[in-house]
Amino acid sequence: MTYHDRGNSWFLAQLKPNCAQIADRNLKQQGFRTFLPMEGGTRNRKGRFVSTLRPMFPGYVFVSFDVAGGLWRKIQSTYGITRLVSFGKEPAMVPLDIVSQLMLRCDTAGKLLPPKLLKPGDRVRMTSGPIADFVATIETIAPDRRVWVLMEIMGGQTRVAVTADQLRTV
Q: Do 137 and 150 touch, CB atoms closer than 8 A?
């Protein structure tokens, strides 16, 4: 995976509400390289917990293009895009290190990978299941990669077993 095409830099495009997938698809159809980092989560829909993917930066997508080529004006009129983030008349460039580090933490589809190294004492946030968005402390990590966490529930500490891919460090 290359992070920097010849002459191209990364920029942020602000999205219209609920248009992340539409804007991403439309930009790619126009030949722009995009990066829409996603993270897994759980939502409660009609009393059932459903696993979902949502943008890591709601309302924004990274777009790569050559600013000198002037093609960036096409982005402003792309369906699903509100505007390019800019300071003054020119779009504001996102530092390459930020985009490349984000890409390294994601798989090829742009989904955020779970942290590689967890250790007892780490504070973590649950990303899926009925206890999504709860914050806990890692107690132990079993040889079968099951992670035991301590959670504060209703004034007491509860010990829960989860898999590492259900956790994100806080």
A: yes
**How many residues are there in the chain?**
170
Q: Identify which of 73, 75, 53, 52 has the alpha carbon closest to the alpha carbon of residue 63.
A: 75
12 backbone dihedrals φ, ψ, rounded to 5°? -105, 135
Q: Which residues touch 80 (CB under 8 Å, ≥6 apart)?
A: 15, 16, 19, 20, 22, 23, 24, 26
**CA dist list (Å): 98 to 91, 94, 104, 130:** 17, 7, 10, 32
Sketch out the chain's domains with CATH numbers: 10-105 (3.30.70.940), 122-169 (2.30.30.30)
Report pLDDT digits (tens) over 94-125.
999 899 988 988 888 888 876 667 888 999 98
Q: Which residue in the block uniquely carries the two structure tokens 């369906």?
A: 79
